[in-house]
Design a protein that fits this description.
With about 180 residues, this protein is mainly α. The protein is built from ten helices and no strands. Helix 1 crosses helix 2, helix 1 packs across helix 9 and helix 2 runs antiparallel to helix 9.
C-alpha cells in the first residue's frame, strides 16, 4: 500500500520517500556495536577455501542486494545535466557496496562457518545480541527498518515497470500499477 500511495502521489512523493528512507536506513548499522566487539579473527581463517561453485552460488544469492542499479538506466534520460549525474551515481553505488562489505565482514567475524550453515537469517540474528533496557525484542525494530531499505527499491522498480509499459505499449501508468 505504501508503494501505491507513493506512486499515486507523484514524482515529488516518490523522490521524497526514496530520499528520506535512503538517509534513515544506514542508521541501523550503528547498532552493530555489540557484534563488532565480539568478532573473532579466527573466523576469517583459512581464507580462499571456497570453490568456484560456492562463490557463484553466493553471488546469485546476493543479486537482490544490488537490485535497483538498473534504475539508473531508466532515469538517465530525465536528467538535465548528464555530466553532473556521474558523481552521485558512483557515490550511491559505492555506498551500497560499502555497506554490503561492512555487513559481510561483521557477519563473518561474528559467526563461525558452522553457524552460517545452520542459520536462515544471519544478518537479522546479528541484531538479536543488541539489547536495551526499554526494548526487549530489538529485531522487530530492525525488521521495520529493513522495510525502509526495500521500499525505495520497490517504488523505483514499480515506476520503471509502469513507465516502460507506457512507452512500449501505450498503456497508462496507473492501469499498469493496478494490474
Amino acid at each position: 500500500f505504501l508503494v501505491f500511495y507513493c506512486f499515486l502521489g507523484g514524482v515529488r512523493v516518490v523522490v521524497g520517500v526514496v530520499f528520506l528512507f535512503t538517509l534513515l536506513s544506514p542508521c541501523v548499522f550503528v547498532l552493530l556495536y555489540d557484534p563488532i566487539s565480539r568478532m573473532e579473527i579466527t573466523h576469517f581463517q583459512p581464507m580462499f577455501e571456497a570453490s568456484i561453485t560456492d562463490i557463484l552460488i553466493g553471488a546469485r544469492t546476493t543479486t537482490y542486494t544490488f537490485l535497483g542499479l538498473e534504475i539508473l538506466f531508466v532515469i538517465y534520460p530525465f536528467i538535465d545535466n548528464k555530466k553532473d549525474a556521474k558523481l552521485p551515481a558512483y557515490l550511491g553505488v559505492s555506498a551500497s557496496a560499502l555497506l554490503i562489505l561492512i555487513t559481510t565482514i561483521i557477519s563473518i567475524g561474528y559467526y563461525s562457518s558452522y553457524a552460517f550453515s545452520i542459520m536462515d537469517w544471519p544478518v537479522l540474528s546479528l541484531f538479536k545480541s543488541v539489547s536495551f533496557s526499554f526494548m526487549e525484542r530489538f529485531d522487530h525494530f530492525v525488521i521495520a527498518e529493513w522495510i525502509m531499505v526495500t521500499i525505495p527499491t520497490l517504488i523505483l522498480l514499480m515506476w520503471a515497470i509502469t513507465y516502460g509499459t507506457k512507452r512500449l505499449y501505450a498503456i497508462p501508468q496507473k492501469t499498469t500499477l493496478y494490474v
